[in-house]
Amino acid sequence: xxxxxxxxxxxxxYSLHNYHGATMKKIADEVNIKPASIYFFYKNKEELFxxxxxxxxxxxxxxxxxxxxxxxxxxxxxxxxxxxxxxxxYHRERxxxxxxxxxxxNSPPAGIKPFLHEHMQQFDIxxxxxxxxxxxxxxxxxxxxxxxxxxxxxxxxxDGIFWEINIYEKEELEKQMEYAINIxxxxxxxxxx
Length: 193
Hints:
Layout: H1 3-21, H2 24-30, H3 35-38, H4 45-71, H5 76-93, H6 95-106, H7 113-138, H8 144-164, H9 170-192
């Protein structure tokens, strides 16, 4: 029995039943062990779920960092498009993790909320710095304040697309992504003209 199997079962149970409904027994049953066996790895349910959500968030961050590394030399609009499209694809392929994450954000257990807040701040700061630097290289006349504002607007639009992942079917979600990209393009054009 590996810790990873327990983490994945915890994520699955959280995605199905939320934090309070995802019991140690349900998690243990999913991986065919006794609930007491989980306590060999985790001292309590909160520690298990904190580990599971750290795993979800760190996996997503690593994925986005890899995307950024692949596209950082492309024009900023291409970077925006790629991040939106690949983020949506990532979350649709990992539906259990996405559902668990949405549940986490909607009603985080007290012990997880500070970690989640810190992680989101670090993610936004990294994304803001990376995209702002890229924008200023591509458009040397743009002020740092405008570059930061555009990046923050992009992050808000990207967050909006994320929340639509479970709402729209594939074709409609494609349209939503196109609308988001058009908004970003208009905002960028307005600021760099």
